[in-house]
Write a structure and sequence with these properties.
Heat Shock Protein 90, 10 helices
Length: 480
């Protein structure tokens, strides 16, 4: 059952109970008020009749010391005929409560007589022949006799009005309930519209449409729920996109890894089989062995790089305060013998947070790549040389930390390739990279190391003009 239907039914049940109890109380209260008024009038009329009987008894001749029954019947007959419309219903009983006179149509039983004595008045409401009456009984003291006067007052109209009141109220209640149901259906439809929109959104997302969002149509709690749902959907979509990207990257990684293994292994197996199954001259044997050695070393380097990437992803660096001067001193000593490239170092002194060995690995990879990119020629403009490439390694304090940059004036990187080169096994020029024993893992390792330093690799490059790779480390006092 829909929530809106439940809401309407619940409201209708509460409304029906409220109208039922209030209607019963209202109509019954009016009825009891009218009945009390009729009872009061009946008792007043009974008192008037008893007074009239006693007055008539005073006119009885003095020859009677005790009023005879015949006189009682005569007075009762006159009182009966003296009513409005000429037809009172009354009954007279003697001291022993034996009936002396009864009006025609007086149908009440004698159940009220035993309850009445000389000092009380009694009454009751009875139903006789489908009509309702107020039955009263009072005592009369007339000529040394104690008599009992009973009257019946017709109050059927009061009961009829109550029945009509209940009938009318039932009709009004039905009309009000039907009208209320229509109104509540409209209200429930408006109140539950955000829920329906949320339900549709969840169905669309369950079907795979993660871009679908629920429309927010109110600012109440349901509107807030819609807003929170959309935020959750945004986060879910981002996570799914990340997962899809990771899956795609993993598939690309596996494909590239398989390809990078296949190429050298095919050559190694081929040359090894040639050495095993053929007698080769010394030159060809040396060439084959050299190729096997070269490709084996490339596989070894690739395996070490992969291991470094795995360790960098799973391990957290222990960042320490380290002087930049020590880092640059190590790099200058490391690349002193690099004659084919002019490597220039310059830096500002500072102390930064880093794991020195990991950052050294990053810079060694970046400088090595810069040297390879500069080997085709090109200069910085101030060297005048076309045969020796120039690589600049700089360190300077910037607003948000300490920036280390490695710049070359080599072949550059196409703009379309710049966002991909930090992926494992990705190489802009595969044949050139393999000729220098590259596997496309250096920049991927650098990116992973910088992540655990809460930094990232910035790339600025123009094809044919050179490239600049840089990153920023946190200075002391900003370890975060």
């Amino acid at each position: 059952m829909k929530f809106s239907i439940k809401l309407v039914l619940s409201t209708m049940i509460v409304l029906a109970l409220a109208l039922g109890f209030s209607g019963f109380y209202f109509v019954n209260n009016v009825f009891e008020t009218s009945l009390d008024r009729e009872v009061g009038q009946a008792l007043d009329e009974s008192s008037i009749l008893s007074f009239a009987f006693e007055t008539a008894a005073l006119n009885v001749p003095l020859k009677y010391s005790v009023m005879p029954d015949s006189v009682v019947e005569e007075i009762a007959s006159k009182l009966e005929m003296g009513g409005q419309g000429g037809g009172r219903l009354l009954r007279i009983a003697d001291e022993e409560k034996n009936i002396l006179y009864t009006s025609g149509g007086f149908t009440a039983d004698e159940g009220l007589l035993p309850q009445t004595d000389q000092h009380t008045k009694s009454y009751r409401v009875i139903c006789a022949q489908d009509r309702f009456y107020v039955h009263t009984c009072v005592s009369i003291n007339a000529l040394n006799r104690i008599l009992y006067l009973e009257t019946m007052k017709d109050v059927t109209e009061v009961f009829t009005e109550r029945a009509l009141g209940f009938s009318l109220y039932r009709k009004v209640t039905v009309v009000m309930l039907l009208t209320g149901m229509v109104i509540m259906l409209l209200i429930a439809s408006l109140l539950t519209k955000p829920i329906r929109l949320l339900t549709k959104a969840t169905r669309e997302m369950a079907a795979g449409d993660y871009t679908y969002r629920a429309r927010q149509i109110s600012r109440d709690e349901l509107g807030q729920l819609t807003g929170d749902f959309n935020k959750m959907a945004n986060a879910l979509e981002e996570n799914i996109c990340k997962l899809e990207e990771e899956i795609e990257a993993r598939e690309e990684f596996m494909g590239a890894f398989a390809h990078e293994l296949k190429t050298p292994l095919t050559a190694i197996i081929g040359y090894a089989d040639m050495l095993r199954s053929h007698k080769l001259d010394e030159e060809k044997s040396i060439m084959s062995a050299n190729y096997i050695y070269t490709e084996g070393k490339r596989l070894e380097a690739m395996s070490f790089r992969l291991l470094d990437i795995i360790v960098a992803k799973q391990d957290e660096a222990r960042l320490q305060e380290t002087s930049v001067g020590e880092l640059f001193a190590y790099l200058q000593e490391m690349f002193t013998e690099k004659k084919e490239t002019d490597i220039r170092f310059s830096h500002e002194e500072a102390v930064v947070w880093m794991e020195a060995n990991l950052i050294k690995t990053v810079l060694v990879n970046l400088i090595d790549n810069a040297c390879k990119a500069s080997e085709t020629g090109g200069g910085s403009g101030d060297t005048g040389s076309d045969t020796v490439g120039v690589v600049e390694v700089t360190g300077q304090t910037v607003e948000n930390g300490y920036r280390i940059a490695v710049k070359d004036y080599g072949i550059g990187i196409p703009e379309a390739e710049q966002s991909k080169i930090v992926k494992a096994f990705y190489m802009v020029d595969k044949s050139r990279a393999r000729s220098k024993n590259g596997a496309g893992l250096g920049l991927a390792l650098c990116a992973e190391i910088l992540k655990i330093h809460h930094s990232e690799l910035q790339i600025e490059s123009r094809e044919g003009e050179g490239s600049c790779f840089s990153f920023i480390l946190a200075p002391c006092g900003c370890k975060d």
